[in-house]
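Q: For a teaching session next week I want to show students how multiple molecules come together into a single three-dimensional assembly. I've collected the sequence lines for a complex. Could you give me the predicted structure tokens for the whole thing so I can convert them for display?
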Amino acid sequence: MADVPSMSASTEDLFERRRSGGYSPDSVQDYEYRMWAERLIREVSEEVASAERKARDFVQAWVRWRDLSSFLSYVELSMTRRTNVEISERQWHETLSAGLLTLGGLLRDWATAFDANTLDLVGYNVAELEMKLQTIRESLEDWHFSPPAQRISAIQALLPEDA
Amino acid sequence: MLREEDLEPVFQAWYDHKMDTGDAEAFRVHHATIDGVKAELETLLGYSLSRSDVRCALRERFGSWMRYNKLPSPPKK
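A: Of course. Below is the structure for the complete assembly, covering every listed component.
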């Protein structure tokens, strides 16, 4: 029993002792070693569960963000198709676009917490995120920072007559 | 003056891109067609334009094109 660690020994101490060969083959059957092993299993299991939870939250956020960015495009197509768009609808479009840009940036930062394999498994693709962000930035510019009317008229004067 | 046939591929690519903003090829083609018409307009006007200038000026026509082609159409079963 001389080699068995005390009940108060931390996991790190036990690791050190194990590394330095500070226990005999017989002592691993002792109660305290079993407790140590069980505690270690519990700790690792909690860490894995927590990592899985984080990965699951990330997937959910990514999928929702992707859906919302597609929804924004459909809203734009609908606005483009109609001849008059209400101011409130334009304002809502601006709010949605700005919100998606912010969230997209947060997702990009969050993704750095996961390794490439995990990101691949959950269907995250940074190139897709960047492409969608650029599309949203362009939408904001097109719909809310329009060029001067004179410039638009000059271009429209060069278009063929609407059939 | 631009011709109707110059605009058709621009509108088609624009629509395809908006219908699937995750499609890299549709994104590339949309930019390429806008850049093509932008270059033509810059030559005609004698000054440089942005993609946004072009899209803003074409937006109304893009809307007409969608209505004429009855787009967006419901997904095929």
